[in-house]
Here is the input.
Amino acid sequence: MLMLVLFHATVALVVPWALRHDRRVMTYVAALAPLATVLWAARQTGAVAEGRPIAERFDWAPDLGLVLQFRLDGPAWVLLLLVGGVGALVLAYSVWYFGQPPPLGIGVLVAFAGAMTGLVLADNLLVLYVFWELTTLCSYILIGGFSPEIKEHRRAANQALLMTTGFGLVMLAGFVVLGQAAGTYTISAILARPPQGVAVDVALVLILLGAFAKSAQVPLHSWLPAAMVAPTPVSAYLHAAAMVQAGVYLVARLTPAFAETGAWRPLVVVVGLVSLIVGGWQALWQDDLKRLLAYGTISQLGFLMVLCGAGTRTAALAGLALLLAHGLYKAPMFLVVGVLDHRFGTRRGSELYQTGRRIPFAALATALAVASMVGLPPFLGYVAKEAALEAFTHGGVDVAVLAGVVAGSVFTVAYGLRFLQAAFGGNTETPTVQGLKDDAVSVWQSAFRGADGARVRLPRVALWPIVLLAVAGFGAGLVPGLWQEMIAPYADRLPAVGKGYELSLWHGLGLPIALGALTWVLGAGLYFLSPRLRPVWAALSRLPTGRQGYHVVLKGLFKTARGLTRRTQVGSLPVYLAVIVLTVLLLPGTSLVMALNRGTVPSLETGRVQPWDHPVQLVIGVVVVSAAVMAAWVGRRLSAALLLGAVGYGVVGLFVVHGAPDLALTSLVVETLTLIILVFVLRRLPERFPPLRRTRAARVGSAVISVCLGAFVTTFLAVAVLSRQYAPVGPGYAREAAEEDAKNVVDALLVDLRALDTLGEISVLAAAAVGVAALVLTGMREERPRHRDVPEPAETPGGRWLTAPGHPPLGPPSVLLAVTARVLTPTILVFSVYLLFAGHNQPGGGFVGGLVAGTAFVLRYLAGGMRELSAALPVDASVLIGGGLAIALCTGAGGWLAGGNFLQSTVLEWTWPVFGHVKLPTGFFFDLGVYVLVLGLVLSLTRTLGSSLEKEPEKVSGGAS
Amino acid sequence: MSAGVHIIAAPGDIPAPHIEYGQLAPMLIVFGVAVLGVLVEALAGRPWRYRIQVPLAFAGLLAAFVWTIVLAWRHEPFHVAAMGALGVDGPTLFLQGTILVLALVSLLLIAERSAAHFTAQASALPGSEAEQQSMSAGITQTEIFPLMMFAVGGMLMFPASNDLLTMFVALEVLSLPLYLLCGLARRRRLLSQEAAVKYFLLGAFSSAFFLYGAALLYGYAGSVRLSDISAQAGQGAGGETLLLAGIALLSVGLLFKLGAVPFHMWKPDVYQGAPTPITALMASCTLVSAFGALLRVYYVGFETLRWDWRPAMWGVAIITMVVGAVVAITQTDIKRMLAYSSIAHAGFLLTGVVATSRQGLSGTLFYLAAYGFTTIGAFAVVTMVRDAGGEAAHLSRWAGLGRRSPVIAGVFAFFLLAMAGIPLTSGFTGKFAVFSAAVDGGATPLVVVGVLASAIAAFFYVRVIVVMFFSDPEADGPSVVVSPATATAVALGLTVTVVLGVLPQPVLDLAGTAASQMFVR
Here is the structure.
């Protein structure tokens, strides 16, 4: 069976390509694939009839339950005959219909036949789903692919695809739930031991939704009439004989296990009956013959749903017989519409007049098909319909179902007649018995009473498929025993009411035959009365339809999507950030508030939290907060930068008050340098921030969110500190530092305990300095500036005080600044050296010392520009950076010399005449390296940014400079 | 911190940390090659750089990949290496292998020379004279290769990190180069730079949240190791609020990286602005890596708290799937559309995480591999469709592409169908694997939402296919530039998408074996 599917796939891929030069031969060869299906199915007849299903298995992805399992039983056999037989005939018909059949279309048709074969044979829910979606895809291409330039065709294709794939996915969800509940995805195993439970009930509803959409059941039917824009062979095959029957087939497969479960039977029967009646009613009014047939198909599929889902033996017999019959009569009706369309250029009933006389044989064949449809003996349609009526003659709720079935059949008879007369006859506006009779006679005469000049010759390949299919419906009706034998093994699994019913042409006089006759009479009556009912139809058609529902859903989706996009994807960074922050506030934030309320976290009011230790903290706090608020408020960039600096200095103050002079010192110097560098950058930006484009509400919102985030972080910090369970590591470090004879714990950590880390950090600093220089200077494509290249400026006010005064970077030259710089430089440098030496025991250290020394030179730069800076320290910054790193490394290597490890520190002690006894830990040299490197870093940054400032900023076309 | 504690415990000699170089070799190779790349930039002459960098990067990734396979092959008892910092186990090796292969494919796109994607000189202002000059000088920006290698190294480290600090370092190592790379597009540079700034700022914020969460968890458990946190949580040691808030804040950082709603907003902007090869790298490797880290954190660290975090993860998964799928419908730019599709896929993947089972883990692993290849292939096709202004990313420009170059349009259509999860593509297999795991894990409603979101998603994928095949081509439409490297990338993506769709079992086996021992602790 896998071979059969693969054969289709091969033919679909190879034949259109290999035989693309002769499209006719290509199509005939392609028809061999479905023909092979028929032949193969025919060979298995015996086995199936004996109730020995043939199974095959191939592991595909067993981990996921994806095992290719195939199984041929009665229902599969019936549908296989239909799929293969109609497929082969439709392909042959295509040769005439298209003239030059398009290779893509033929390939996809064959692929469809293969997918359908796979679907029918699949014995695994997932495999069935895979083939199910493949048929949908084929249908999509076949509807839209022949004339994609027409918008209506594209829309129809999309609608069909969306409806069937969408609900196909819903069905997949149902399959998964069902499979998980059953512990297997093998259909035969599930049927043998059907699972129970609420989940299964839900799953079955989901599965039914998929089946209803595929079989175009009301209210999911609107895609089928729209799909009639497809070429006629496609409509005949996909939308009458094969694909749309898949939903019914699935219901038939699952009914033996689930007919009694949950909403299965009520849902299937109600939806089926509604479709039967609504479809029949709509078919009565269509002018486009293909749409008429489409509604007729909806109606007949509804009938099939009722039969296949009812879950009784008789109904199942009737259902499968009707499944075959439906394919055999609906396909030729479609094909004949194709002939009409082709020969007379229209398929609208109102525009076709007396065409039956011109193609009499086609008309007669169609009449046979209609006869089977309305259930005239001895056609297969009659056999099936008799069984169907019999199935619901047992009273109870069945009476309502029976009434529905009869009503539906009345419509079937009426639109069957209408189809015949609209297609081949004359007047359809006011049908009369006499008119119908005249038309029939004229067709008969044209066919058998000599040559009628009006006759149009139809090629055999156009006519024969129609005739063959119609006659097959007749022939199949003559051998009801065969179908009985084939279907019985399946139907016997369902409960039988009364004695075992058998498909047969004659059951004696009884209710079924009477009801059948009644439908013929009433149907004919309805047809002749129909002109008077037209106003009713017009009134009813104002009711909302499935098609409108589809469009409403689609429009709603678009509207939602647009709205969502407009609101969420505004492209504004503040909004994005606000969303992230809000989420944080919403989830952990609320949990924090709730925990505080419930008391599951340490309360903030236990006295361990106090507003301040010292009133100065309050003052500094107020300064910090107000500076922060104002920084967000002011319009000038420089003011904002200065206010941010104020925040930083305030924090430094807090450190001091809290007893962390070391931290405060470092923080202070870093703050200062950051501020200076920030000012450099600001020079190249406009003075003020761009005008605010956000609304006041948005800004207030941002403010609220920011305050909340601040509050959240603060509270959490407090809670986290109060929840401490572990001993702090600080005292341990203090002990360690004492062992090293150092009183400054921070410095001991930096240069001794974790010296390797510090070495890494200063390497990163060095790399960062090089990186900044490279980034800023590459854009300028110029040699790194040297002090002697800077041109001598005219006399400046600070000239007497400075060594080599140049252009100060900010504003005009200032004497005061020049004096201050000159006087303070030595002092600051001495202080920095003091910090370096004191580091071991007092606040200080190489890092702070280097930064302080850096500020001295920055001050000189601020007073006298690049020239002055170069004169004040005529050493290249890179030499300092490299030198500092080298000193640190040499100190580390010194540890080896002393017989220890890398960076192991020892204490050098010696006595000098004046100094007396000197104790010098080697850590000092390491600190010296840090000092030199940090100084070099500050210089490098200043020089890089400074030299970029001294050049005119590049003009940018279009943008702000 | 742990080292400090160690000193206190044993003053005197500090033992050198024990590092299993052999087991960490893939990461070390990639980082080593990245450093070598920097040296090449510094020492090699300009004309030589490209010629050295590209083979170097390829060789590095390939060697790391081979080493990963050898590690997985030898099946040594998996354990945590490098003093408990990095886990070497089945899922990690699978993820690392996937990242390396995907990085190799992305490298094909990045190294493409016939259609330059990257600006000649990142520091030249857009529209300035300097830019003109550097372009006319034909300079190629070869720093991209070491940057990419650093990012890939970070990605390898991210899912392997067994403690939160290592994970944070990995997060930064992978993110920082990406921020830079995003801003290097050759065309529409302002858009590209805006994308980089947005990504950087938002990424920095979410990293800060990650760090804050890690700090809270440290406060709770007294350790940043995932196994210790799990053990503490298992004992119910009190301080639940700290723990849960820590998890939440940590998740912000992780979910941001994989673009789950509501932390997804950077994705469309960044995917659109970044050079397309970088977008491909982010959409595949970063996603795999971020999911790997998420899986490790949730499966190892917070496994005992499953009942606490699962509801929130349900919510995130649902809105991610729905928002990603619904908003994608209105997109008119292919790259933005693919970005939203990536968001929706993140949602689908989260259903696998929610499953918290071996099956969920293996399903997610498989899905990641499958999706990674498909998405790289799709972005590779995007780079091929070009007009005078560079890539023709607007959907309307793709009208009728199916007529002009049916093969490329067909391949792209196939990728889209795979993303939609049509059977016989890897997308179906992957989606099926995570969904069935989620159903087993009792998350049926989530799967139903997932299926509905897939249906909506299918809608916009099909829309693109319709535009390509069923509309008339524009007169001055874009042309398709086929060059060997990009074509190879497309072919690889296509092959994997087909093979994982038609014959998924070997890779499923692989993912299943990888997941069989779960993550080490």
About this structure: The beta strands of chain A are 54-61, 66-72, 907-912, 916-921. Residues 623-690 of chain A form one domain. Chain A touches chain B through 86 residues (CB under 8 Å).
